[in-house]
């Protein structure tokens, strides 16, 4: 297969991925889905990233002698920052959704837990972000790479290597997506709609798509890794399809629940046996609501404030970016890129992600069976 054929396949797959994503946005935006508004905005903002990347790629080819976008760091970082914003909005949206679910539970009679003093965590977050900012000073990334090569005998860094800011953008995007999966899992319990967990599982292929991109960059965007980029496009298409299906299931559950309530109201004057059955159902519903309220409060109390979260995420992403940029120079296999190595990296990370959520699914099923 020629490079031109791989590029044609990638373009076709990325283009096809837009249609299931639009279906996902349609179902997610339905009123009965009850998605947190800011998270809904975040998912929609992804379209800004998609259409913003197109002129950036064109500019890279026209202004840099036919270069691919990934090899032009300023344009690459600017385009990818739109994805970071997308994922950050999604995360902050579900954090807000968990808080609102907790507030609703408190309004129904549960005692409000006293708010802890968050001064120390906020100061620590500010300090961490400030310290990590030193790594973003222009020239630090290149100087560190040159020092590692000269003093430690590590590999010389290729000219198309990502800068620390661009690496930080990629790291934060991957991390934010995983964090969003966790918050969505919690939102399933807090909102009383267990099918939100299905969205978490459906997001795994999209995360693997991001892993393909990061692995390609880790191997310095080698042209020999065209199958990895094609796999990224295929996983994006598949992932967008699975999240669309998950969003449809979420909306369907809420419609079914509304119908059940209507039918329960119509049985109000039924016989004694039905009345007893209805009473048992009511008791079960009350127990479920208590569990939901408790889960919502616990999740909200563990969140902390959004400002500290963003600062800590920024600091961690920058430090991880510097570690990737400089530490990779010591790893010999990265300078002999192969598709086998790339797919091994993506496969191992994906397997770890699948294992985590498989265990969570088993634990949730066990808890439901006990109740």
Structural notes for this entry:
There is one protein chain. With about 375 residues, this protein is mainly alpha-helical. Helix content is about 80%, strand content about 0%. It is built from 13 helices and no strands. The model has no long low-confidence stretch (mean pLDDT about 90).
Structural class: mainly alpha
Mean pLDDT: 88
Kindly state the percentage of residues in helix. over 70%
Distance between the termini: 55 Å
**Topology pattern, helix = H, strand = E:** HHHHHHHHHHHHH
What global shape is seen? globular
Question: Approximately what portion of the residues adopt beta-strand conformation?
Answer: under 5%
Low-confidence stretches: none
Total number of helical segments? 13
Q: Could you tell me the radius of gyration in angstroms?
A: 24 Å
Strand elements, count: 0
Short description:
The protein is built from 13 helices and no strands.
What descriptors fit this protein?
371 residues; mainly alpha
Question: Helices and strands in order, then pairings?
Answer:
Blueprint lengths: L2 H14 L1 H11 L8 H27 L9 H35 L11 H14 L7 H13 L11 H28 L4 H7 L1 H15 L7 H41 L5 H30 L4 H22 L11 H32 L1
